[in-house]
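Reading a protein record of the kind used here takes little practice once its layout is understood. An example of such a record is reproduced below.
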Amino acid sequence: MRLLNLVKYTSEASAEVLKEGFGSRRDALAAAVEQTGGEIEHFWAVNSSDWNVAFVVQTTQVADDAQGAAVYVAYQAAGYIEKVMSLPIAEAADADAVLQAMADTRARTPGATD
């Protein structure tokens, strides 16, 4: 499973970014995510007043809630994260395959209409 995460840093974390760059925050986050069995696939700086970075985490479905909670609490306790939004994402081709399977099922259902 993949999660798109948007993060707003605290002023302390933003000060570290100014001093060490976004890469330092990515490296620290990657280490925490890897400890919980996940992997950061992409990491971007965001030009927004609401968010500072966006990143995609690949994880196992079983560990999603526990992984997210553990990483979020650890970073919030350390004073790095003001807020976070996590969105489950899928490849468009995978979603298309599900839509097609749904259409095929509807077509075989007695009384189904298009």
Q: What stands out?
A: The chain has a mean pLDDT of 86. The chain is about 50% helix and 25% strand.
